[in-house]
Amino acid sequence: MAENVTSLFRSTAAHSPSMAALTRAAGDGAGPIDFCIPVNPYFPTPGMWDEMSGRLRDIITYYPSSADTITAELCNLLQLPPQAVAMGNGSTELITWIDHLLVRESLAIPVPTFGRWTDQPMETGKRVDMFPLQESSGFALDLAQYAEFIRARGTRAAVICNPNNPDGGFLHKHAVVQFMDAMADLDLVVIDESFLEFADAEAEPSVVQEAMLRPNVIVLRSLGKNFGLHGIRFGYMVANPALAGRVRSMLPKWNLNAFAEYVVFMLKEHGAEYAQSLQQVYRDRLDMSSQLSALPGLTVYPSQGNFLFVRLPVGAEGTVVRDRLLSEHRILVRECGNKIGSSSRFLRLVVRPQTDVRRLVSALEQVLYGTRRGAAVPELATGTSYSSGTAAVDRLMSNGAGMPLAAQAMAAAPPQPAAPMPAPMPMPVAPQPQPMPMPVAPAAAAQSPYGVPAAGPTPPGVPARGGLTAAQVRGTNGLTPAPAQGWPNSGAWPNAAGA
């Protein structure tokens, strides 16, 4: 697979090659261990797989029922009124129609986040106002600051992903409801709950019931991620009947396939197994976070998703780490250099069973530190930029796939002196610049519930007031690189020979 690494990542418009492409490239019919695609590894159960396999011929031979029939069954399972629900061929189809039908001229979104929330509106000529989440605060979203940002720019639609992808940041239900009410004058508020089934911080975190009572709120939910069936492509949105009906009326009659129908109709018999699968993911997330946090210089951010956002040690290039994990260890990870608001110092790692995690940790030790943990990657100079392109892949191929990152970094630049710290602890985070103060409307303007004067809408095509256009932001990574901080307790580490 090593000789195909560069072409695999260059030949796809997505962030990673598909599993089918990776399996073909392997040449032996076996794909990598997947820490990239965030699905539930414990569902469907083996018995469910056997049941679907036994019905495969019928499933793929005949037309499915109409989307209305499949939606009615899902609503019966979820105890939702069908008139408030629209099912789509994956959440991406619903995001596309939400943009076309309901986003008039501008949309606000915290970054980094799921790429379709930034890319889809830009592709249709909308202004996208991006609110940068700060590394210094662990990428936590401050809803009051976000509301002020929206008011200052006059944005007409707002999105929140809860938990957020890629960092797993979580917002409690009462705070989300307060935000929805504060934004009642906007054209649209979308709460993307695609990963909320994996959260365990709150017993009932969803705002689905509250959304149905409000005229401008949509809640987006995923099924493929929760049920471990990304390939089926099915998800749904919940809103008041008028809003849901507007989207539903634009969807093709057979936009849902026969596999989606079969799974929806078998779910009522497997509720207990599904709940158990989520409990196991919760436990695995804690175990995986603990194991990764023990790696020197690696920062693991708190997450309520079925994935963990990690910052690599200073000097480690994410694209090189990704490609070496794939070519040398057959492990696929999500390198986040192409996410606005992130850089190639960050990986998103999907929660998997402990056996797979142990293999991942062992592979990271070899790639980051050589053959032993503690043979630290030398620090690069303060201000080093971390790319999101393919230069690192070229460097990997020219330097030789077997060369440790430590040796690559040493050849690229001399190491800087490390500043010892008194005890092992997570890598300190460099302060990040806060968003610049935004001008507000005249005092006569109406006050928002957050106490910020509401500004009028910015005309289409005009840059956001006090900020950058989407195109300008697209050309940056949204965060300045963190300076070198020194390695935790570096004086106590063994050298590469183990001494």
Automatic annotation (TrEMBL):
A Pfam family assignment: Aminotran_1_2
Top-level enzyme category: transferase
Q: Which InterPro entries match?
A: Aminotransferase_I/II_large, PyrdxlP-dep_Trfase, PyrdxlP-dep_Trfase_major, PyrdxlP-dep_Trfase_small
Cofactor(s) this protein cannot do without: pyridoxal 5'-phosphate
Ranges where the Aminotransferase class I/classII large domain occurs: 71-364
Keywords from UniProt, A to Z, are:
Aminotransferase, Pyridoxal phosphate, Transferase
Q: Where is this region: Disordered?
A: 480-499
Record SUPFAM superfamilies: PLP-dependent transferases (SSF53383)
Give the Gene Ontology MF terms in alphabetical order: histidinol-phosphate transaminase activity
EC number(s) for this protein?
2.6.1.9
| Name the record gives this protein | Histidinol-phosphate transaminase
